[in-house]
Design brief:
This protein has 12 helices and 9 strands. The radius of gyration is 20 Å and the shape is globular. By secondary structure, the protein is an alpha/beta fold. The protein has 2 domains: about 200 residues, Spore Coat Polysaccharide Biosynthesis Protein SpsA, Chain A (Alpha-Beta Complex); about 70 residues, no CATH class. About 50% of the residues lie in helices and about 20% in strands. The longest helix has 17 residues.
Length: about 300
């Protein structure tokens, strides 16, 4: 039985899958299996041809109906049976030492953490459209507040023990927008996280449809993260940031009353300048109702873009 199962969900992106799959099979850690889960691509044979080019320990699973990346990951989880699980999106890339260094942290457990369940690493965003590169190096994530404050939802960076996934359950495919964060929020309530202090994952930003385009799904995701955070006794000031981001999405779909309720609660819990920022956005929601619809839409979009820089 391989020690690590790598799950790659994919749909209609064989040209990107080539690089992702190549980065997995190019790992200097070899005790692994790879499960490519085709989420009902228009032409699954294209992915089959990509897989055939590589050979090796790759299994091709095809879903008949698309359920999104989380449903595809769950399909891979059900088909895997290794000690550790890793996830990679079809548009991202691992550097060659990623898995080996994470397994080494599990084996050595240098911080002597009880119930160590997740080892993550740093990652780097590569914007293929604008030619920009930005590394993200996080402080330690030791609890629910750290997780929600940093909004750490990059599951491509984690290696997780299979027994931990079995205990907390897989991904909630009904909230395709914040499902990765919600999954990790459940995980950190039961298990400790450690990290490799190096950029080992390259996340590519590109043109094309993404789950982040689905505002209703994002709204459901924010609401679920808030629910999970409250159940885990997350600090209200930390949850205020999630309420603010939920309010922005609610405003974008015209749900002004619900947006304002969240903003008022966020303002009450936030501290310092952040409270001012939330109050400005609350005021913007009242200004928007007084102007023509086209200008209102432009105003809200402009406000969201400006305030997003500080979110």
């Amino acid at each position: 039985m391989p020690r690590v199962s790598v799950i790659i969900p994919t749909r209609n992106r064989p040209s990107l899958l080539v690089d992702a799959l190549g980065s997995v099979l190019g790992q200097d850690y070899r005790d692994l299996e790879v499960l490519v889960v085709d989420d009902a691509s228009v032409d699954p044979d294209e992915n089959a041809r990509v897989i055939e080019r590589f050979g090796g320990p790759v299994r091709h699973l095809v879903r008949e109906q698309s359920g999104g990346p989380s449903a595809a990951r769950n399909t891979g989880l059900r088909a895997s049976d290794s000690e550790y699980i890793a996830f990679l999106d079809d548009d991202d890339i691992w550097l060659p030492s990623k898995l080996r260094r994470q397994v080494e942290v599990f084996e050595a457990n240098p911080r002597k953490l009880s119930r160590l369940g997740v080892v993550y690493c740093w990652h780097q965003w590569i914007d293929l459209r604008a030619g920009r590169v930005q590394a993200r190096r996080l402080a330690r994530i030791d609890g629910i507040d750290d997780l929600i404050r940093t909004r750490y939802n990059i599951v491509q960076t984690i290696l997780v023990k299979r027994m931990c996934v079995d205990e907390v359950g897989g991904f909630d495919h009904t909230i395709a927008g914040r499902e990765n964060l919600e999954f990790l929020a459940r995980m950190i309530q039961r298990y400790r996280f450690d990290r490799v202090d190096d950029v080992l994952v390259l996340c590519r930003v590109h043109s094309g449809p993404r789950t982040s385009d689905d505002l209703p799904a994002i709204i459901a995701g924010h609401e679920r993260v808030l629910q999970t955070g409250r159940a885990a006794n997350a600090t209200p000031a930390v949850l205020a940031g999630e309420q603010y981001r939920l309010a922005r999405c609610l405003m974008a779909v015209g749900a002004m009353r619900e947006a304002r309720m969240n903003l008022v609660e966020a303002i009450g819990a936030a501290r310092g300048f952040v409270r001012v920022k939330y109050a400005v956005f609350l005021a913007l929601s009242y200004v928007a109702r007084l102007v023509r619809p086209n200008f209102r839409s432009a105003l809200l979009k402009y406000g969201a873009n400006v305030l997003r820089r500080g979110s």
